[in-house]
């Protein structure tokens, strides 16, 4: 063991292994773009699934009437009603409610889960104020269903569940049409509502953001996990069977699956081996909120084992997987005090250690290294999408503003991550093209997007 004031070889090597200099970052962006093309050519052609969303008609702003959104993707589900007033009035009224799902329903039967959702939806509708929300005579209520689990979409309003994730394991659902399950439950519970659109979270964000700003071409989620969707020209999608291939459609890239030429360290490898999907989603494991704290924890653990980072012992808490979370890294990097007091208190609260100033500085460096790599790699992904769009539309080249709509708490709450991402964007695109790109934080527009897609795909 060397003492803590001497050089720390673990940290030095880690920083070196995480480096993403511009030429290398460009290679990553190109590799992502290659896998996008491969995925558009044939099913399973590349690491990115490039799923056809069947969303061809994007909201125009003229939508009118009462529509609903249901978002199911974690331990809570959200319902929203939206009264649309057309081009001028836009969103006349909207209400939403979040309902937590009892754990036993996450591992029960599909009748139980969807029955519960239908009942809650029915009481949400029953509470509606007739003055604010108005269903036109002769119309049934229509719903945009955001279902954030792996789905094989078969049309705008049908899709089969590939597998449950995130702690869900509802029996008898895999391979079934999730829209039919919800429609049946609503009918059983006497609710006059039907699903008009099945949408992915990113697609909802893109559609919702585009309603307010028509220059939106990309929707990115950076939260616990990550994904990106974008507007693609149908004529450049070889795997699209339909012969009438003019116009645009939204592609759900599932970019978290990208797994080539990434700057992996021993800590990434070890975390991956212990994960539920080893060898997969390596990009997601470097850029999304679920993993960044865990990478830092693993680095700090090895620093403790090789130097007296926090004194002669390895803190017990540091050996607990996922003890350190991305929120903690964010707090650590916020600290502007000379003696890094906040860093000290986070380390005390989470790891139960009294860290010297030298140790606190090192912890900040580890966090910064992980966040810098994550932010820059996320930037490279966005550049891959923008360059693909540019190649087929030349919009930025002709001076047209192009907007990336962003949602997710990692992007929203981590300023350093945002800055590193923006730096990467400018480095790779160049100042001129980058000046036409705006990254806009669009919070919670995915529900509005889903309701709008129900409107665009209304049967009435
Ligand atoms: P979702 O789970 O649907 O992605 P969010 O967009 O709220 O939901 O993202 C939550 C994730 O964002 C957390 O898992 C965490 O990684 C990250 N996060 C939450 N709060 C913060 C914060 N204050 N600073 C940095 N990251 C945060």
Automatic annotation (TrEMBL):
InterPro entries per record: ATPase_NBD, Hexokinase, Hexokinase_BS, Hexokinase_C, Hexokinase_N
Top-level division of the source organism's lineage: Eukaryota
Pfam families linked: Hexokinase_1 (PF00349), Hexokinase_2 (PF03727)
EC numbers on record: 2.7.1.-
Pathway, per record: Carbohydrate metabolism; hexose metabolism; Carbohydrate degradation; glycolysis; D-glyceraldehyde 3-phosphate and glycerone phosphate from D-glucose: step 1/4
Hexokinase C-terminal domain location: 218-455
SUPFAM superfamilies referenced in this protein's UniProt entry, alphabetically: Actin-like ATPase domain
Top EC group: transferase
UniProt entry keywords in alphabetical sequence: ATP-binding, Glycolysis, Kinase, Nucleotide-binding, Transferase
Domain Hexokinase N-terminal intervals: 11-211
PROSITE patterns the UniProt entry points to: HEXOKINASE_1 (PS00378), HEXOKINASE_2 (PS51748)
PANTHER family reported for this sequence: HEXOKINASE (PTHR19443), HEXOKINASE-LIKE 1 PROTEIN-RELATED (PTHR19443:SF63)
The family this protein is said to belong to: Belongs to the hexokinase family.
Protein name from the UniProt record: Phosphotransferase
Organism, scientific name: Camelina sativa
């Amino acid at each position: 063991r060397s003492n803590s004031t001497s050089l720390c070889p673990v940290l030095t090597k880690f920083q070196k292994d995480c480096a993403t200099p511009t030429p290398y970052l460009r290679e990553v962006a190109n590799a992502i773009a290659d896998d996008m093309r491969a995925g558009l050519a044939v099913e399973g052609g590349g690491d990115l699934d490039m799923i056809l969303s069947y969303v061809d008609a994007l909201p125009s702003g003229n939508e009118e009437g009462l529509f609903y959104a249901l978002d199911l993707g974690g331990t809570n589900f959200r319902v929203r009603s939206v009264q649309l007033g057309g081009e001028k009035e836009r969103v006349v009224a909207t209400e939403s409610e979040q309902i937590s799902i009892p754990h036993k329903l996450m591992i029960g039967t599909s009748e139980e889960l969807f029955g519960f959702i239908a009942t809650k939806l029915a009481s949400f509708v029953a509470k509606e104020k007739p003055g604010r929300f108005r269903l036109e005579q002769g119309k049934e209520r229509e719903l945009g269903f955001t279902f954030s689990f792996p789905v094989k979409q078969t049309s705008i309003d049908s899709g089969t569940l590939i597998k449950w994730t995130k702690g869900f394991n509802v029996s008898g659902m895999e391979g079934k049409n999730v829209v039919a399950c919800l429609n049946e439950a609503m009918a059983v519970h006497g609710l006059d509502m039907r699903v008009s659109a099945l949408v992915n979270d990113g697609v909802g964000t893109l559609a919702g953001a585009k309603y307010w700003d028509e220059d939106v071409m990309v929707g990115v989620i950076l939260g616990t996990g990550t994904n990106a969707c974008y507007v693609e020209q149908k004529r450049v999608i070889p795997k699209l069977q339909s012969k009438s291939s003019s116009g645009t459609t939204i592609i759900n890239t599932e970019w978290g699956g990208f797994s080539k030429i990434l700057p992996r360290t021993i800590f990434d490898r070890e975390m991956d081996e212990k994960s539920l999907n080893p060898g997969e989603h390596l990009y997601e494991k470097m850029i999304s909120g679920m993993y960044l704290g865990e990478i830092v924890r693993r680095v700090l653990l090895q620093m403790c084992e090789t130097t007296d980072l926090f004194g002669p012992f390895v803190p017990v808490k540091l050996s607990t997987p996922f003890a350190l979370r991305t929120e903690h890294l964010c707090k650590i990097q916020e600290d502007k005090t000379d003696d890094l007091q906040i860093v000290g208190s986070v380390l005390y609260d989470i790891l139960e250690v009294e860290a010297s100033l030298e140790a606190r500085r090192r912890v900040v460096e580890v966090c910064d290294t992980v966040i810098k790599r994550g932010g820059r790699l996320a930037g490279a992904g966005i550049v891959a999408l923008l360059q693909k769009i540019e190649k087929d539309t030349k919009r930025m080249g002709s001076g047209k503003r192009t907007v990336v709509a962003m949602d997710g708490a990692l992007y929203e709450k981590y300023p350093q991550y945002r800055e590193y991402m923006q730096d990467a964007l400018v480095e790779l695109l160049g100042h001129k093209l980058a000046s036409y790109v705006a990254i806009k934080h669009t919070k919670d527009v995915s529900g509005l997007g889903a309701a709008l897609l129900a409107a665009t795909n209304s049967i009435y």
